[in-house]
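Why does residue order matter? Because the sequence determines the fold. Keep that principle in mind as you read this record.
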Amino acid sequence: MYASHCYVDYIDPKYRDNAPRMVLQPDGSEAFIVPGMKRPVALGFIDGAGFGVTERLEGAKRIKFADIRAGAYSGSARVPYMNPDGIAAEVIYASIGMGLCMHRDPEYKDACMKAYNRWLQEMCSEAPDRVFGLAQTAVLSVDSAIEDFRRAKEMGWSA
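Structure:
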């Protein structure tokens, strides 16, 4: 289970060919490409904990997925980073997925957010007493948002 495939592997098959994905950039870095959005999303924004602002901004655009610490996308790999600081639990929220909030196609956005939630459930299941997910919803309607909250509750997250 890799964060690099959190959309491609978990999205409704109807959207799989156009799912957000990691692409090698001309400068040799890797970035998430989201169809319908102007700019690629630099991978450095996935793994920013412990880096200063300048260090994070400078490195964010040059990073490859292989450079990202597993704790950024693996619940079990995250725990050793939490322990030295006495962190009992963490709530994980979207990084790349935050940009999807601005996507102009609501159905596509909904499919991506549901894919992210499925991936996040699996990630959090690796450390279920320490790592908790914050689900995303595209809020297509009041009823769909309620359904998304119900689904998040079934995934084990508080609503």
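The first helix runs from residue 53 to 60.
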